Amino acid sequence: MRKVHWIWPVAAASLLLVAQSPKEEPEKLAPYYPTPETIVERMLQLGELKAGEKMFDLGSGDGRIVIMAAQKFHADATGIELDAELVRQSSEKIQSLRLQKTARIIHGDLLKQDIRSADLVTIYLLPSSNEKVRPMLEKQLKKGARVVAHDFEIPGWTPEKVEHIEDDGEGRSHTLYLYRR
Predict the structure, then answer these.
(1) What is the strand order of the sheet 161-165 is part of?
(2) Residue 135 burial (CB count, 10 A)
(3) Residue 30 to residue 52: CA distance in whole angstroms
């Protein structure tokens, strides 16, 4: 009878380990590919970003859109990034520029964020990722909120404006899509 008593704690511990198995990692929705500064500025201009407005960059990479939105457009800018190293780098840059009051980077899954306060959202994701983001945008964005998508359209939406930029100064062309909810 004594030998049976040790089975229950082992079984309970095994069940606890199974219950605590790591959560499924969020899906990476795009590779890191930095947007040229001239295109960053054009995205924010096309999105009609004004001082004091709230903007979100979904998949913020090195934070360049968030930083320019806060620094040059005087917006309240938030980036959401999955890659911990990019979050660290962009957060350090924000701190070195003393923009912490108006710029921040959230380390997390962009599909699980609350962006209801957004006046402007910028995205540079793959076409399949834009399709995954669309339901979140439709559910959360308030009337009049703008979305600027870089290079890839949001399936099922009709852009208000489409801007083709033939050469960004680095020999590459870009297409920007402006949407308004």
Answers:
(1) 103-107, 76-81, 54-58, 120-123, 146-150, 174-180, 161-165
(2) 11
(3) 29
Range of the domain at 155: 37-180
Reported residue count of the chain is 181
Report, in angstroms and rounded to the nearest whole number, the Rg of the chain calculated over CA atoms.
21
Please give the Cα distance from 36 to 61 (Å, whole number).
12
User: Model-level pTM greater than 0.70?
Assistant: yes
Three-class HEC string of 109-133:
CHHHCCCCCCCEEEECCCHHHHHHH
pLDDT category, 21, cuts 50, 70, 90? very low
Instruction: Give the whole-angstrom CA distance, residue 4 versus residue 168.
Output: 73
Residue 23 has pLDDT above 50, yes or no: yes
pLDDT tier for residue 180 given thresholds of 50, 70 and 90: very high
The answer to whether position 96 is within a domain reads: yes
Sign for the pseudo-dihedral over CA of 100, 137, 42, 60? positive
* Res. 139: pLDDT tops 80: yes
End-to-end CA distance of the chain: give it in Å, rounded.
70
Q: Considering the domain boundaries, does residue 28 fall inside one?
A: no
Q: Which CATH number is 158's domain given?
A: 3.40.50.150
